Task: inverse folding
């Protein structure tokens, strides 16, 4: 009972700091219009950026995949869980993003978290490796760096001068520069062309977590690599498949030797059951849509919604962070006010999450608005008007 009491004291401390997190129960498919706890809501909180989670073609492909392959894979990829669906998906992904890589190959994972752990613990497991990590990286990259045997140095956000000095002073034989492409809480983009130039100069890998860029950036939705027109053998690219692709899972694309090394030595890949093959089958439909004219139209509509929100928000006390992506953060400041505003929006039928430390720095609690191509201009106008109204209330 003493151990339980200790946990309860820590939970009470979180509550006193307005840091307690709560789950809401979604009763309908992922979409802008949802039902939560029996109540209709307009949601601005999912990462379904292209509106593919409930797309009829993707849903039908999932049904078809279950009929073809059953409900589960039954084993890890290296035992008997690697099905034709997984292989077709990996081949398709290597083709899709491989125009920006040298000798490309792709490897699928159950989640982006596992993919990042696999990259860093595989490439950073040698005793003389060194990891250079962006200060605003996602938790999965931070944890992957901690689990690797490499030395870890953190460079300030987008600070190329600081990173260049760290690389120049490194004697490691294996160097990894690790960064998000689109920063999930700020919505800004990493300076990837300059980062790649530094990596090529100092013979380092550039590991890019493109969780929020894959599908939304680039003329064909190939992500940050296409957006910046990058191509290099130094690139190790991670994309997630549960955000813009609308289903679930993730993949790593890189030179074939990198991928083969991850298959042979990547513990998060070797020692886990493969994802259900039906998901891989559904993702083939998602990738086709992303790269099609329909995908381009959805990306264009999404960008028009981003521009609309920026134009219609008339903030005086709060601050909308500069972002051209689907992630539109609004800095409130205190945890208490962010929670109050989030609750106020919820009372108006608008579901927008309040993000607090440790996810973001202390004093920068915010609303994290995420837009989807499935939203309408009328819905975004409704959100902007509600936020403007609440800001005027003290």
Result:
């Amino acid at each position: 009972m003493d151990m339980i009491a200790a946990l309860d004291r820590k939970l009470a401390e979180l509550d006193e700091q307005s840091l307690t997190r709560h789950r809401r129960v979604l009763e309908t498919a992922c979409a802008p219009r949802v039902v939560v706890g029996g109540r209709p809501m307009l949601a601005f909180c999912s990462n379904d950026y292209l509106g593919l989670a409930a797309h009829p073609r993707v849903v039908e492909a999932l049904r078809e995949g279950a009929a073809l392959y059953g409900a589960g894979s039954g084993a890890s990829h290296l035992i008997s869980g690697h099905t034709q669906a997984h292989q077709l998906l990996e081949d398709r992904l290597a083709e899709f993003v491989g125009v920006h890589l040298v000798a490309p190959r792709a490897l699928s994972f159950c989640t982006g978290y596992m993919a990042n752990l696999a990259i860093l613990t595989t490439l950073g497991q040698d005793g003389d490796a060194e990891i250079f990590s962006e200060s605003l990286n996602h938790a999965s990259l931070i944890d992957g760096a901690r689990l690797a045997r490499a030395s870890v140095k953190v460079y300030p956000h987008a600070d190329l001068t600081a990173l260049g000095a760290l690389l120049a002073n490194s004697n490691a034989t294996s160097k990894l520069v690790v960064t998000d492409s689109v920063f999930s809480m700020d919505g800004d983009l990493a300076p990837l062309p300059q980062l790649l130039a530094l990596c090529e100069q100092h013979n380092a890998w550039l590991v890019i977590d493109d969780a929020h860029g894959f599908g939304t950036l680039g003329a064909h939705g190939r992500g940050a690599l296409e957006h910046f027109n990058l191509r290099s053998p130094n690139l190790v690219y991670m994309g997630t498949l549960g955000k813009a692709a609308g289903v679930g899972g993730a993949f790593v694309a890189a030179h074939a030797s990198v991928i083969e090394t991850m298959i042979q030595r990547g513990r998060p890949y070797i020692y886990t059951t493969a994802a259900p093959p039906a998901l891989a089958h559904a993702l083939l439909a998602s990738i086709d849509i992303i790269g099609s004219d329909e995908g381009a139209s959805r990306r264009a509509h999404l960008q028009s919604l981003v521009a609309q929100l920026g134009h219609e928000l008339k903030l005086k006390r709060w601050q909308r962070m500069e972002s051209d992506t689907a992630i539109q953060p609004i800095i409130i400041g205190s945890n208490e006010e962010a929670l109050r505003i989030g609750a106020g929006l919820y009372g108006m039928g608008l579901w927008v999450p309040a993000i607090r430390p440790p996810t973001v720095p202390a004093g920068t609690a915010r609303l994290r608005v995420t837009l989807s191509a499935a939203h309408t201009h009328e819905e975004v106008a409704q959100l902007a008007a509600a936020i403007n109204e609440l800001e005027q209330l003290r």
Summary: The chain has 15 helices and 14 strands.
